[in-house]
Amino acid sequence: MYSMTTLGVPGPRGPVTRKDVARFAGVSTAVVSYVVNGGPKRVAPATEAKVQDAIRRLGYRPNAAARALKLGSSETIGLVIPDNSNPFFSLLAHAVEEAAAERGYALVLTNSDGNVAKERRNVRNLAARQVDGVIVSSVLMEPGAADFESAEVPVVLLNHSAEAPGFNSVGVDLVAGARAAVEHLIGHGHTSIALAMGTNTGNYYDGREEGWLQALAGAGLPEGPIVRTPFTREGGYAAGRRLLAGAERPTAIFATSDLQAVGILRALHEAGLSVPEDMALASFDGSAEAEYSWPPLTTVRQPAQAMAEAAVNALIGTGRGNTPEHLIFPADLQVRQSCGCRRD
What we know:
By secondary structure, the protein is an alpha/beta fold. It contains 13 helices and twelve strands.
């Protein structure tokens, strides 16, 4: 980094300021502000180039704390998700970051690790850092309103299929999505379809299980075996082994997450079974991991981009301060080879 002294300009006593940049570029501090903030007034390209050159050569860094104090906003939002190593939550977090950046906001990401106490602690810590709001993908179907209200920061619930009175919430239609996947398996002639159901912190009834039941009942089929394990690769692997060891082996499995399905694939391959010839498989989420497994997974895709955009809009966009709404997005079935469909 160059100092002003080495560039022939008297060096400042402290950090480089906006005035230093303006003096070096030969413009007003207002013009520097327009360049740094991208407006509100347009700056001629040649003038902007001079300002950007001065910023680079002087090593100027805008004072975020001073800007936040002036605007009454940190222009930062927080995000709490269960686990960013899960491809779906990683996809969701990236979509939230993009939606926030489009509005000039930065994102602070935290993981709850599927722990209620840590989720609450993360919300409080983010609020203490004066973020403008927090988006929470809660581990609970019905998180306690008092916990969020005590943080004294706006909260929007994301990936939340149940209405939460007093809060904006955004989710996907779990029931319809799961029903579509199971009906597709039934369409391939399967009459014994197992459910690998992910476990959740609150032990609440998950809509994906309801969709599985509805599809079977609609086709006049009996309920297949159910195995409950975590929403992880390890959980799926355990589920696959247990289903294969059961007295009556199903001919198809619906897994409630792509990660579980990946674990199930390993269990099936280790047992010498071919997918989908010996065992068909469909899953839920629509992550990249589903597309690049072998065989590629037929999966119910959640519209992560649209969900993230809706959550950010409710928190800091046009929906901010309005009457809380519960938005549910439809999911769509991505048909690949694991169900028995031919390759395109």
